[in-house]
Design goal:
By secondary structure, the chain is of the alpha/beta class. Helix content is 43%, strand content 12%. The protein has six helices and seven strands; from the N terminus they run ααβαβαββαβαββ. The strands form two sheets. A five-stranded parallel β-sheet has the order 1-6-5-2-4. The chain has a two-stranded antiparallel sheet with strand order 3-7. The N and C termini lie far apart (66 Å).
Length: 181
């Protein structure tokens, strides 16, 4: 009987401690959210007009990425980047964006000109540049996130072309993607 009492007491204490931990965790999240969708939605609306003004046609984009201090940033996966990219691009996968990693790649000047492109800027639709759904094209969250992290001198390649129209490094057509049947 005494053993049951101790076992029951231990279970009640453990449940109480677990409830307190969960309550503390919820309380902390309410005070300092780690995920803030409303703030992201506000940032998206705030950045929309700026992004529209920062779209560059191919000729302007290719000329400007050659300027001193310009950074051509490719935010696709490391594997896609290694398989092929615009010559001179630097890779930081979008999923790796943090203050520290962005500063390491971009440098100390938050006003540095940053030029971005993604799979959806190319018509080839083959590995490593398979198309994404248009509303989910990588340029969109990349632009929003760069501005959100404090980098406002961001420029984006506008339009669609073939990789044959740029200085492309790698072998982009080794694996052709087939549409699902």
């Amino acid at each position: 009987m005494r053993l049951r009492f101790f076992a029951l007491s231990a279970m009640v204490l453990a449940a109480s401690a677990q409830a307190n931990t969960a309550e503390t965790s919820i309380s902390t999240q309410a005070q300092e959210p780690q995920i803030d969708y409303p703030a992201f939605a506000d940032l998206t609306v705030e950045v929309m007009a700026m992004r529209e003004e920062r779209l560059l046609v191919k000729e302007d984009f290719l000329r400007q990425i050659e300027a001193d201090g310009a950074l051509l940033l490719d935010t696709r996966s490391a594997a896609a980047f290694a398989a092929g990219h615009i010559e001179g691009a630097v890779n930081l996968p979008f999923s790796d964006f943090t203050d520290v990693k962005l500063a390491a790649v971009i440098g100390k000047d938050p006003d540095r000109a940053i030029y971005i492109y993604c799979n959806n800027n190319f018509s080839d639709d083959a590995f490593p540049i398979a198309l994404k759904a248009a509303p989910l094209a990588l340029n969109i969250p990349t632009f929003i996130n760069l501005v959100g992290y404090g980098y406002e001198n961001v420029w984006e390649l506008d339009g669609v072309m073939s990789v044959a129209e740029v200085n492309w490094t790698g072998e982009p057509f080794t694996i052709a993607l087939q549409p699902a049947t």
